Amino acid sequence: MKSKVLGSTLIIAGTTIGAGMLALPIASAGIGFGTSLVLMFALWALMAYTALLMVELHQYADHSATLHTLAKQVLGKKGKYIASFAMLFLFYALCAAYIAGGGGQFADRLDMLFGIRLPGTVATLLFTVLVALTVTIGTHAVDKLNRVLFTLKLIAMSSVLFLLAPNVTQGYLMSMPVQQGLIVASIPVIFTSFGFHGSIPAIVNYLEGDTKALKKAIVIGSSLPLVIYIFWQIVTLGVVQQSTLIENSGLSNLIGLLAEAVHVEKLATIIGVFADLALVTSFLGVSLGLFEYLRDLGSKFTSKQNGTKQTAGLSFSQRAIAALVTFLPPLCFALFYPQGFIMALGYAAIALAVLAIFLPTIMVAKTRKQFTSETGYQVAGGHIALYSSMLIGVIIVGSQLLVTFKILPALG
C-alpha cells in the first residue's frame, strides 16, 4: 500500500504542476511576491480542503465512482449535467490555453534549434496536429511519450531553478502591488494552477477507498507543487524588476527576460525547453482526457441510436471525428487570440470552481444531513468551512467575470 500512496502522491503533484506554473509570474507581476505568496497559500489550502471533501463523499459510494456518478447520486440528473458541462468547459478552456501558449513556443523553438521560421498561425496548426495525432493513436502512445517528456521536464525545471537562484535580488521580492485591482484579477489564474481534482476519482479507485491513505496522498501531493511554486516565484520575480515584467507581459517575453537577466550560456534554451515540456505534458494529459470523454459520449450516443451495446473499439474514422471535435474549438480560439494563454486559464477557473468547490461543498452539505448518524471520516471545519469555501468560489468566478467585462485589468 505504501508504494500505492507514493504513486498517488506523485500523480496528484504531477497533475498539478503543469503549464499553469508558467502563468504564475505573469499573473503575479503586478502584485509582487509577498501578495502572491499569501494568495498561493490561501488557494492551496482551499483546494486541499475541497479535495478532502471529495474523499468524504466517496465513503458513501463505490470506490470506482466518478464525479458524474457522485453528482447524480447526491444531486440527481441536474447535478450530473452540471458536472458534465463544467468538465467539458474546463477541458476546452485548458486546451485553448495550451494551444495559444504552445504555438508561439513551438515557433520559437524551431527557429532557435533548426533555423526554421514559420508564421505564428502555421506553427500553431502544426503544434496542434502533432499532439492530435499522438492522442488519436491512443492512451498507450500518450503514456510512452509522456513518461519521457515528464522526466525531461523535471530535469529542465531543476536546472532552471539552480541557474536562476544565485541571481535573485531581494529588493525585487519586496515589490508591492501597483494596482489593487490586479490582486483580484490574479486570483483565477493562481487558483487554476492548483487544480488536480479531476484525478481524485482515479486515485480513490487506485487506493480502494482507503481514507487514511487518501488523506496522506492529497495533503502531501498538493503540498509539493506549493513548495515548487514558491521557489519558482522567488527565482522569477526576484530576477526581473517588477516594472519590466509588467511592460513585457506574455509567456515568450517572460522567457526572454529571464534569459537576459542571467548571463549564462544556453539559459534561454533551457528555460524554453522547460516551458515547452510543461505545456506539452499538460496539453497531452488534458486533451487525452477530453478526447476519451467525447469518444465515450459518442459511442454511448451511437449505441443508443442503434439500440446495440458498443463492445468493439472505434474505427479510424470515428476516432478522427472525435479528434476533430476535441481539437478544432480550442484551435480556433488560439488562432483568433494568439496571446490568449492567460485569458483561457482565467476562463478555466470558472469551470474549475464548479468542479472543485461548488459541487463538493454542496454535495457534502447534503450528504451530512442524510447521514447524520454515520461515524465515518468527516473533514474538519463544519458548516463555517463549507460556506466560506463557497464564498471564495463566488469571489473566484466573480473576479474572472469582472476581468472579462473589463471592470478589472486584464493580465498578460
Automatic annotation (TrEMBL):
Matching InterPro entries: Amino_acid_transport_2 (IPR018227), Trp/try_permease_CS (IPR013061), Trp_tyr_transpt (IPR013059)
Membrane topology: Multi-pass membrane protein
Transmembrane segments annotated in the record for this chain: 39-60, 81-101, 121-142, 154-175, 181-205, 217-235, 267-291, 312-336, 342-364, 384-408
Top-rank lineage group of the source organism: Bacteria
Subcellular location: Cell inner membrane
UniProt keyword annotations, A-Z: Amino-acid transport, Cell inner membrane, Cell membrane, Membrane, Transmembrane, Transmembrane helix, Transport
Classification via PROSITE patterns: AROMATIC_AA_PERMEASE_1
Similarity-based family: Belongs to the amino acid/polyamine transporter 2 family. Mtr/TnaB/TyrP permease subfamily.
Function in brief: Involved in transporting aromatic amino acids across the cytoplasmic membrane.
Name of protein: Aromatic amino acid permease
Organism: Vibrio mediterranei
